Amino acid sequence: MVATKTGKATVCKLLVDGEWVDSTATEFQDIYNPSTGEIIGRTPLGGMADVDRAAKVAQKAFLEWKEVPIVERARVMFRFKNLMEQRYEEIAQCVTREHGKTLPESRASVQRAMEVVEFACGIPSLMMGESMENIARNVDCETIRHPIGVCAGIAPFNFPAMVPLWMYPIAITCGNSFLLKPSEKVPLTSMMIADLLSEAGLPNGVFNIVHGGKDCVDALLTHPLIKAISFVGSTHIAKYIYTTGTANGKRVQAAGGAKNHIIIMPDADMQQTVQALQASAFGCAGERCMAGSLALPVGDAAEALVPHLVEAAAQMKVGPTDGQTHPDMGPLVSKEHLDKVRGMIDKGEKEGAKVALDGRKLDISSKSNGFYLGPTILDHAKPEMSVVREEIFGPVLSVVRVDSLEDALAIGRDCPYGNGAVIYTNSGRSAREFKHHFNAGMIGINVGVPAPMAWFPFTGWNASFYGDLHIQGSEGIQFYTQQKMTMTRWFEPSKTSNFQDPIWKPKN
Known about the structure:
Elements: E1 3-5, E2 10-12, E3 14-16, E4 19-21, E5 28-33, E6 38-44, H1 48-65, H2 70-86, H3 88-99, H4 103-121, H5 123-126, E7 130-136, E8 139-147, E9 150-154, H6 162-173, E10 177-181, H7 188-199, E11 207-209, H8 214-222, E12 226-232, H9 235-247, E13 251-255, E14 260-264, H10 270-282, E15 292-297, H11 301-314, H12 335-350, E16 354-357, E17 376-379, H13 386-389, E18 396-399, H14 405-413, E19 420-424, H15 428-437, E20 442-445, E21 465-466, H16 473-479, E22 481-489
Parallel strand pairs: 9-10, 9-12, 10-11, 12-13, 14-15, 14-19, 15-18, 17-18, 19-20
Antiparallel strand pairs: 1-2, 3-4, 5-6, 7-8, 8-22, 13-21, 16-17
């Protein structure tokens, strides 16, 4: 049982050593269904006591798990993947219920999560070391990858299934044990999936769940048994995670926020561009670090793009994601986040941006007490405005009109972030200039959301990432392992030696 009933709502439990147990926390945070505003659970805000309990269990489990043959560890992931496929629809519905994504968006995120599990199934070949004979006379050398120990993951609210699964399938299959702290806003999906790991045969204690806010995070960052921290979230927290974790001797990969630029050249296919930009800016209600939140139409492209984009976005249906209706966009995750995004729109308008489409005017009278905001387009924004420089994390698209590709690249160079950037064009030369010079780690050419598949790393730059080895792909395997190099030399027995080799005889 993953939760207990109280007078108000179910209280989430911790997963420690294969058992769902109560937290020592005395404070709790409500979990909402964003579509209705209904409280559907409570998250305990635990701290060091909970983390210490789980870390000690994980350390004991690690010492046994690392000795399990790698093919057997991979078979656990195969079984886990099969169970996820069987429960696919149930997991997606849980994502929708606690986060507010539309059901198609939730299904797509669960599919991406399962692709990381598929990638982890192939780790026996991906963890293979290297060797060479005679690097010096009669000296051979080899490298072998070893797991590093107890690892921890701190996940954001925006992808309750996908982002945690970026982390622990790779870590576990490499031979580590794992502590997951899901977002206190959306812990239910991770708890559902955890039961599937147990059903797949993962030994008790290899995977554990703790709950909490800052105190729990600080406990993970400072606990001596935890060797590595994976994080996805906002930039200022990512920087804190990195500096605190590394100061305590831990490996850290901390993915932060973004302000992803989409450049539209005059020669772009405008129909395709409008559709892609609409999906990129307003998909998942803009609550993703790869959302296209800043459009940069070049020259005449603005007049061809903006009116059609406003018309298309205005026709999007926003509403409850309860399965009874089929909206194009659901609510934001919480009332606090809704207020924050609305405040950013207000600020952009005061700074001089023209509100071409105002999502604040969305009629929510028939949408219960959910946290709704319609698609919003701020035209004629300027590079110095807050809506251009800061991550909004909502369905808000700022449009900065520029005269040339070089002007667009210059705005990109001045951006503190560096997750993704996209160009829409039919010009190979423009595409190459953009690809070569834009200041971001993930590039799309006529691709609206250039988020990599599981076998490629999530390569954010600048303030979008703190660390050396990125999440996913081969870098993920490197992050969760350490190399051991062995040099070997064997001598021929000498004539005066008492050793009798059964095969080799000393030369005369």
